[in-house]
Amino acid sequence: MTPDEFRTHGHALIDWITDYLEGIERYPVGSQVQPGEIRAMLPEHPPATAESFDAVMADMDRVIMPGITHWQHPEFFAYFPGNTGYAAILGDLAASGLGVQGMSWVTSPACTEVETLMMDWMQELLGLPEKFRSTSATGGGVIQGSASEATLASVLAARWRVTGGRINTIGDTTNLVAYATAQAHSSIEKGLRVAGIGTSQIRVVPHDGSFAMRVDELERMVAEDRARGLQPFWVCSSRGTTSSMAFDPTADIAHVARANGMWLHVDAAMSGIGALAPEMRWINDGVELADSYCTNPHKWMGVNFDCDLFYTSDRAALLGALSILPEYLRSQAAEAGAVIDYRDWQIPLGRRFRSLKLWFTIRTGGVTDAIDMMRRHVGLTQELASWVAADPRFEVIAPHPLNLLCVRLKEGDLETDAMIEKANASGRALFTRTVLDGAVACRVSIGGRTTERRHVEQAWALLQELA
Amino acid sequence: MTPDEFRTHGHALIDWITDYLEGIERYPVGSQVQPGEIRAMLPEHPPATAESFDAVMADMDRVIMPGITHWQHPEFFAYFPGNTGYAAILGDLAASGLGVQGMSWVTSPACTEVETLMMDWMQELLGLPEKFRSTSATGGGVIQGSASEATLASVLAARWRVTGGRINTIGDTTNLVAYATAQAHSSIEKGLRVAGIGTSQIRVVPHDGSFAMRVDELERMVAEDRARGLQPFWVCSSRGTTSSMAFDPTADIAHVARANGMWLHVDAAMSGIGALAPEMRWINDGVELADSYCTNPHKWMGVNFDCDLFYTSDRAALLGALSILPEYLRSQAAEAGAVIDYRDWQIPLGRRFRSLKLWFTIRTGGVTDAIDMMRRHVGLTQELASWVAADPRFEVIAPHPLNLLCVRLKEGDLETDAMIEKANASGRALFTRTVLDGAVACRVSIGGRTTERRHVEQAWALLQELA
Lengths: 467, 467
Prior knowledge:
The structure is a homodimer of 467-residue chains.
Chain A: H1 3-22, H2 37-40, H3 53-64, H4 86-98, H5 109-125, E1 140-144, H6 147-162, E2 176-181, H7 186-194, E3 202-205, H8 215-227, E4 231-238, H9 250-259, E5 263-267, E6 292-295, H10 297-300, E7 308-312, H11 315-322, H12 332-335, H13 355-363, H14 366-389, E8 394-396, E9 404-409, H15 413-426, E10 432-436, E11 439-445, H16 453-466
Parallel strand pairs in A: 2-3, 2-4, 4-5, 5-6
Antiparallel strand pairs in A: 1-7, 6-7, 8-9, 9-11, 10-11
Helix pairs in contact in A: 4-13, 5-13, 6-7, 6-11, 14-16
């Protein structure tokens, strides 16, 4: 592709994306294809000769679009918000165009320094503790690809700290025990498993009627494990669980963690961004007592994937767990301690200039936009809850302080499942099911950038129609 | 940002990227800033009011560019190739614009099916064994973010297989032993460490004069470990090491691995893509005996980061190690076994539509372009080697079958280091140092998309001038 062709095709693609996002309501929300259908529309073998860019774009419409589940659709109420804002798309494009690696400061100083600054800006904007700031004595932040990676990084730092660094030489994890509720995200168990903490070393702490951790049970389990000679080392406080958006009592958990030398990780991946709005600061209550924390601009802030903010107050433990220095990665600046090498803050070596999408978004008014959007989502969720309460066939089965409502047909699980399946098959909206203490529920996650009152009204009408 | 503003700014940014890449030779290759200089040019606190997009772009030129080390510069001879091709930038932009999650088939079927097809296309294009194809009985491939993640995935699959899956419940790794040479990439030790394999469980297998693994030593070490009651479980065969581009004898290693029930991972991150050219197929010799393999289109193929191809012949082990199924991620299609859920093939849950950049690149002629480019790089490297041989002050200290030359001043380490430092400070080219069996060397990695004969001539003139 020549430079001039890139200009022409690039302009066309920008227009194609705009038309896609502005006309997205013409599509069914969830893809309606059957397994194998997309692949069958494409050649089984690579082309022998070059095709035109127009041919590729024609296939974007013909082949790709039927296989897309539209996360940007205003009737997308499934999983979690996954907003892609216009400014963030451009920030990401700039990163692709520059094509630099930010693994070390020296491999592109701007990539590191803008990222550090964005982490500090977000610390301020979210009202997070000063101890997470890069200018603090012992803490700092980094953009991870996902909350899964943030969780794993946190587990690895905790594992390093509790073994006094011995884990790096003697990889013995058999004595370590971790704690979370059954409501914690699946990436918690996965991250622990990766780090050599099997399910026999993971305690599922009971939750209360609001699906929040019971700290009395945590305390009891930790004491029992210690009595057995085991080493409790890591506990997760979820602030906004995926299933029902439950909030564990972080400050109380912190008390137990501190008394027992455990690392406290606060997982606010889905909801923590809400703290941009002053009245939602409570989401992160207790985070000042945490060893690490994460939240995702790529969920509720209009910054496209991948962009997870991971903070720790103990960067020495993180670096102890993750730094490795071969000859070909040495640099004077790093050895003098004058700079950050973010490769030592994450699992992979390579890294994109991911902070640009945050920088573009914040500077062009993205924070105000996100606050307005989140307030709208929370308001609509509460309105929907009142509509549900007025229909005797339905019930709400979990607290709903923010933008997720778990609704269910009183008739039963099978009926609720059937309703969800029919709604999703209609293409008019998309929901995810979950199971809360044995009861099937339809999760209504109101988080679209363009989701307005009428979309929620339509979704509710659809559920009523199918009930 | 309104849709119309996005169109306008998007077109401008496409032009900015084109102008940047086409005019890149005006910049010093390595950033010349001091630590803290970039951050000091930006406000310490986030803006209180929205700024214009033009203000952001002005800062891209004023603030960001001085802090960029230009990986796309034709005089960039450092680290490894990190090519960003025009078609790949557009593929990445399309992915950002669609803003879908590909964690499960059902979350966007096209995202999964195009990725599977691209992995199969690349298997064919690279001449990799059929057992890595998605249509094979037991194997398949996935795009990972980086070779570091591919290595870790491979270690986790091996750990699962050797323990018969018990690792997931009893996280005991203390008996496991892994093998690699000192020339293996740092991500090998890091991945092992993450998985609970400490340095006391990693054997550094001696290498020969060409920096390739000595299989007699591997065999001896494995036997010793077994005699001690330990469990050899994973060995890495590097095909193109980072330091000097050395090639471990994969087939011989496979013989030892097979006889001892070990997982064989072939790491061809930097060089494996060369196999697109028939005469470079030898790079992957022996891969038909491997349990897993990775190579990076984001290094030598013009596909921008992140895009690592990871193949395994034992997907059951990979899935055993990495799959977790909470209620909110269940789907009928997955439970029926009709589809792939790539979240079970990787560490993170979330994933971008990364295969689009590969699809755009391959369809618009990127394979032919890459082959032409790689042949040019290999030819230039051999030419440079002949120039170096003709200058009595220099010596080449490692085999150079492809596009990396390790040169050194006969005078000594300090002199070689001084030459590299001065060359990099000049901004006229950028090199990385390494140490090979105690001797400092200047790595000349010839891998730029636009690197021509004159650039190599200039780089050589610079080194001669500073010798």
